[in-house]
């Protein structure tokens, strides 16, 4: 599947979720079958793109996530984590499986109130 939406609101952050079941953050960064990428603002969320992963190639995966601000997963190796960070993507690791919709709701609430410093930095960097 290629682009789902071309909508991109000013002030939106682009967030990727490593998923194997399409509903949950349930995949290791290097073992994810796909990444669901959303544009998220304090009021809206929009599925922007689905990236399908064919081969376990960290550099290729990161290239496919170009433009993403935050990536969520259940685990990541240290080399891949360094590459993610060096490409300007903020990594978020969960120990347990988390529902994507629930996480998007939390992000929207954070954006509408007082976002943590790392999100403020992303917004400032984007000039939003």
From TrEMBL:
SUPFAM superfamilies: Nitrogenase accessory factor-like
Domain Dinitrogenase iron-molybdenum cofactor biosynthesis intervals: 22-108
Entries under Gene3D superfamilies matching the protein: Dinitrogenase iron-molybdenum cofactor biosynthesis domain
Coiled-coil region: none
PANTHER family for this protein: IRON-MOLIBDENUM COFACTOR PROCESSING PROTEIN, IRON-MOLYBDENUM PROTEIN-RELATED-RELATED
Protein's name according to its UniProt entry: Dinitrogenase iron-molybdenum cofactor biosynthesis protein, putative NifX
Organism encoding this protein: Sulfurovum sp. enrichment culture clone C5
Source taxonomy: Bacteria, Pseudomonadati, Campylobacterota, Epsilonproteobacteria, Campylobacterales
